[in-house]
């Protein structure tokens, strides 16, 4: 059985429905078009932004290879100012910090690495920046600050960096003369794996020191 007996009744019913719902349907279509267009524009903007950041990153690599320290600093600043939401900004800070270390300007390297740790959105890059920062703090004899950085690390995000942090903790404890704690940290790093080739030598050195003290 047909709901409407004639084609005229079907047309009349459709007209009545359109009067009540046409505006909302048109609004929905318009909003959908705006949303799709807006997403397309946003995606295009983001892609263009990444391309510009990538171009600057290529420049900083060339400047670093050419030993153009001032250019490295300048490009790193530009990346961090204009593209700090991209991984390129964090990589640029790592490059700049490396240049500062080679110039023996550890304070400036510390500042660059602190900025990388604070602004990076990539977990792995953050760990790389933090471990390099701890080594700089070790060289600056800021041992407690280094230990504090390790203590603040989110244990759930360690990945393959656990052994590295344990070894660095051991290095800091050795520098502070806290041999027992250094040994514990080195042993933890050895158990975790992925530590440096020098780790076993560090442990052996502590053992040799203990033997010498016993004599």
From TrEMBL:
It is found in: Cell membrane. It comes from the Bacteria. The keyword Transmembrane applies. It is a single-pass type II membrane protein. It holds the Pfam family TPR_21. One of its GO terms (molecular function) is protein-containing complex binding. GO terms for cellular component: plasma membrane. InterPro entries: SecYEG/CpoB_TPR (IPR018704), TPR-like_helical_dom_sf (IPR011990), YfgM (IPR026039). The keyword Transmembrane helix applies. Its main location: membrane. Keywords: Cell membrane, Chaperone, Membrane, Transmembrane, Transmembrane helix. Residues 15-207 form the Ancillary SecYEG translocon subunit/Cell division coordinator CpoB TPR domain. The chain crosses the membrane at residues 24-42. Belongs to the YfgM family. PANTHER family: ANCILLARY SECYEG TRANSLOCON SUBUNIT (PTHR38035:SF1), UPF0070 PROTEIN YFGM (PTHR38035). This is Ancillary SecYEG translocon subunit. It comes from Methyloprofundus sedimenti.
């Amino acid at each position: 059985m047909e709901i409407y007996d004639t084609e005229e009744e079907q047309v009349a019913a459709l007209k009545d429905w359109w009067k009540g719902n046409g505006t909302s349907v048109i609004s929905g279509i318009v909003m959908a078009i705006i949303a799709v267009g807006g997403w397309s524009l946003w995606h295009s903007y983001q892609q263009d932004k990444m391309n510009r950041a990538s171009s600057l990153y290529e420049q900083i690599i060339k400047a670093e290879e050419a030993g153009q320290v001032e250019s490295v600093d300048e490009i790193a600043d530009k990346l961090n100012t204009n593209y700090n939401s991209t991984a390129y900004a964090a990589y640029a800070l790592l490059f700049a910090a490396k240049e500062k270390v080679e110039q023996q300007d550890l304070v400036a390297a510390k500042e660059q690495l602190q900025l990388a740790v604070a602004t990076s959105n990539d977990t792995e890059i953050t760990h790389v920046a933090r471990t390099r920062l701890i080594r700089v703090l070790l060289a600056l004899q800021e041992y407690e600050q280094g230990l504090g950085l390790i203590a603040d690390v989110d244990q759930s995000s360690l990945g393959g960096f656990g052994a590295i942090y344990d070894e660095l903790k051991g290095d800091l404890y050795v520098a502070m003369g806290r041999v027992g704690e250094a040994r514990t940290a080195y042993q933890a790093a050895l158990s975790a794996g992925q530590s440096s080739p020098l780790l076993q030598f560090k442990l052996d050195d502590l053992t040799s020191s203990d033997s010498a003290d016993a004599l």
